Amino acid sequence: MIDQENIVQLVGFRLGPKLFGASILNVREIIRNPRVETVDGLPDFVEGVVRIRGEVLPIVNLGRILGVKLSRIEEEKLWVLVAQSGKRNIGYIVDSVTPIIRISNRKILSAPDLILSSLRNKYIKGVCETDKGLIVIVDLEHMMLDDEIKEMERLAVE
């Protein structure tokens, strides 16, 4: 029997061939096929902005931040995870989203050095073997650096 108090629920998603997960508590919503508006002068990891219910969200290429190439970026097949980072919501482009993944806290291990050296490791919370394969758990809440968030906020005001 599984101890429900030690269960972590993750939103699973793919970037290229790699499987990632983020705590369901950090993901506000998943948006399918938003209309991304490009804005001049944005950092290279920001694809543009989206208006959702009166809020303008920066749309960030999560693959660029983690050093993983996305399979594609096609507006008609776009998946965006919205998570709070700092004081604002950020949309993260991913290749696809899986059903919710439930795992035991005890199964989450520190990420091996090989994974950490190939990804921006300060965003990696751990890894876990699942029936879908190895999942790399990322921290979307702290994904964006303070300087990057300040730059996006400055551009949003201009």
Question: What does this 3D model show about the protein?
Answer:
With 158 residues, the protein is mainly beta. The chain has a single domain (6-157), classed as Beta Barrel (OB fold (Dihydrolipoamide Acetyltransferase, E2P)), CATH 2.40.50.180. The chain has 3 helices and 11 strands, in the order βββββαββββαββα. The chain has helices at 62-66, 113-118, 146-157; strands at residues 7-15, 18-23, 27-32, 46-52, 55-61, 79-85, 88-94, 96-97, 101-104, 124-130, 133-138. The strands form 2 sheets. Strands 1, 2, 8, 9, 10 and 11 form a 6-stranded mixed β-sheet that branches. Strands 3-6-7-5-4 form a 5-stranded mixed β-sheet. Strand 1 and strand 2 (18-23) form a beta hairpin. The radius of gyration is 16 Å and the shape is globular.
Which homologous superfamily in CATH is the superfamily?
Answer: CheA-289, Domain 4
Under the CATH scheme, which architecture would be assigned?
Answer: Beta Barrel
Total of helices: 3
Tell me the β content: 35-45%
Tell me how many strands there are.
Answer: 11
Alpha-beta classification: mainly beta
Identify low-pLDDT runs: none
**Highest CATH level, the class:** Mainly Beta
